[in-house]
């Protein structure tokens, strides 16, 4: 079973398909999926909100731009987890469309709040 590393960060797996994991691992994982994605059979599964055309055109902190839905969702589920409003999870699986993978990885790697809470898989 995967768990938090000694750095205390939650592993974040960025995938283009819902993984076929054993039930024991599913119990401790949170699946975040695209609105049209699979994964309804996961015990802990949420759907990303739709993207907005006002998404980060000017850069971080701009009042007219909204943050990437995945970034907002990761921040929200972490806060819910800390406050006891969401079952605890040891890892997160973010499933996205293949064409979004590189751009979204860049956004997540450069978001200070995401980097403070999550460790992108492959960056151990």
Give a structural overview:
By secondary structure, the chain is an alpha/beta fold. It has one domain (10-49, 64-121). 27% of the residues lie in helices and 18% in strands. It is built from 4 helices and 5 strands. The chain has helices spanning 23-26, 69-82, 101-109, 112-117; strands spanning 10-15, 29-33, 45-47, 91-95, 118-120. It has a 5-stranded parallel β-sheet. The longest helix is centred in the middle third of the chain and has 14 residues, at 69-82. The relative contact order is 0.26. The model has no long low-confidence stretch (mean pLDDT 82).
Outline the low-pLDDT stretches: none
The domain tally reads 1
Average pLDDT rating: 82
Class from helix and strand fractions? alpha/beta
- Helix percentage: 25-40%
Amino- and carboxy-terminal Cα gap: 16 Å
Biggest β-sheet: strands ordered side by side in the sheet: 3-2-4-1-5
**Overall 3D geometry?**
globular
**Total helical segments:** 4
Mind telling me the C-alpha Rg? Answer: 14 Å
How many E strands? 5
Strand residues, percent: 15-25%
Which features does this protein show?
4 helices, 5 strands, 124 residues, five-stranded parallel sheet, globular, alpha/beta
Topology:
Layout lengths: L9 E6 L7 H4 L2 E5 L11 E3 L21 H14 L8 E5 L5 H9 L2 H6 E3 L4
Parallel strand pairs: 1-4, 1-5, 2-3, 2-4
Summarize the structure.
The chain has 124 residues and is α/β, with parallel strands linked by helices. The chain has one domain (10-49, 64-121). Helix content is 27%, strand content 18%.
């Amino acid at each position: 079973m995967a768990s938090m590393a000694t750095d205390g960060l939650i592993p974040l797996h960025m995938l283009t398909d819902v993984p076929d994991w054993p039930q024991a691992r599913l119990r401790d994982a949170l699946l975040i999926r695209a609105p049209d994605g699979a994964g309804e059979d996961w015990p802990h599964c949420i759907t990303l909100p739709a993207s907005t055309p006002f998404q980060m055109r000017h850069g971080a902190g701009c009042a007219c731009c909204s943050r990437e839905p995945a970034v907002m969702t990761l921040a929200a589920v972490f806060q819910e987890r800390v406050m006891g409003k969401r079952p605890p999870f040891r890892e997160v699986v973010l499933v996205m469309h293949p064409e979004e993978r590189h751009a979204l990885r860049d956004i997540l790697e450069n978001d200070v709040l995401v980097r403070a809470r999550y460790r992108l898989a492959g960056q151990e």
